[in-house]
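Supplementary Methods, section 5.1.

A reviewer requested that the exact input to the structure prediction be made available. We therefore reproduce it here, unchanged from the version used in the analyses.
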Amino acid sequence: MTAAQTSARVTMHVQPPGADPPAGRHALRPNRRSLVVAALATLAAAIGLLVALPTPRADTVIPVDPSAAISKAKSTPGFTVRLPQPLPAGWQPNSARFQLTKDGPQLHIGYLAPDGGYVGLEQADMRNVRRYVTVRSAGNVFADLRTINGQVWVHLTSDRKAQDSLAWFGPHGVVMVTGTASVANLEQLAASLHLNPSG
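The structure derived from this sequence is encoded token-by-token as follows.
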């Protein structure tokens, strides 16, 4: 190798003052401590965001006006409608619908109970209510009988999830209060129900 070639090879690796260090096989190796610090900072930021986000509360639920569904139900010939009169304090309706199915008319009004649980007021007029009750109660497991305002209600539990139901069987249909609220709250809603004439 000539002196000129040696000089040129050495010059290729000479860096001016302030320049980045030469790239070698270790230059791109990540600093393990820096990665740990960055990961911890990201985790802390995510936790802070979750804590700062508001959680759903009973007093932030937007009530639903069930009057349209109730009006349709009451105008259906032969369909008896039982409604809470008055609605117990602390209860809020948050869903409502009326359906004319092939099995018969069905009215649903959902409520948020004072304990934060959900309760559905389910009413249907049909000859065979077994399947309806099984579906609405999520299992239809007999627990006991409850007498509420002189009427006998069947207390059912679910075999699939935490849900209790009270069912009252009338001449042509059934009235149910079912959901995740306490049985005491189910009884309170059931006790408030009164027959509403059609029209």
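The mean pLDDT is 81. These observations are discussed further in the main text.
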